[in-house]
Write a structure and sequence with these properties.
By secondary structure, the protein is an alpha+beta fold. Helices cover 33% and strands 22% of the residues. The chain is elongated, with a radius of gyration of 18 Å.
């Protein structure tokens, strides 16, 4: 019996890395999904044991396929099909960036004005 295979865009959607299959395909077209330093097209066939990276600037999140999946599953079952093997240093970097970008705006103050946005951009540059 041969290894089961599936398209990468469908698999990314099935394991809930992307909300829709079209967003998963778009990520592939934007060169955000990589296997062996090669950018993937949405129709690229993957199989059990493959490792792939998803670019989440400034780092790559790295995953290993435990088992190929054809239909979307609940969030609790994703761990049976996909294993994240991203080094802890990369995840720590993402945490630091998320904490910096989560600005403490008062609830109910509404959207930032153009001046607020310019001030934020200047602050982060």
């Amino acid at each position: 019996m041969s290894n089961p295979t599936e398209r990468i865009d469908k698999f990314l959607w099935a394991v809930r890395l992307y909300k829709t299959r079209s967003k998963a395909a778009e990520a592939c077209k934007k060169k955000l999904v990589i296997i062996d330093d090669a950018f993937l097209k949405p129709a690229r066939v993957i199989q059990q044991g493959d490792e792939f990276k998803i670019k989440q600037p400034p780092v790559f999140r790295i995953y290993r396929i435990k088992q190929v999946l054809h239909n979307r599953v609940g969030a609790k079952l994703v761990q049976d099909y996909l294993e994240e093997i991203t080094p802890k240093e990369y995840l720590d970097t993402l945490d630091v960036i998320n904490q910096k970008t989560a600005l403490n705006r008062e609830r109910g103050t509404g959207r930032p004005t153009k001046k607020d946005r310019r001030d934020l951009e200047n602050f982060f540059e």
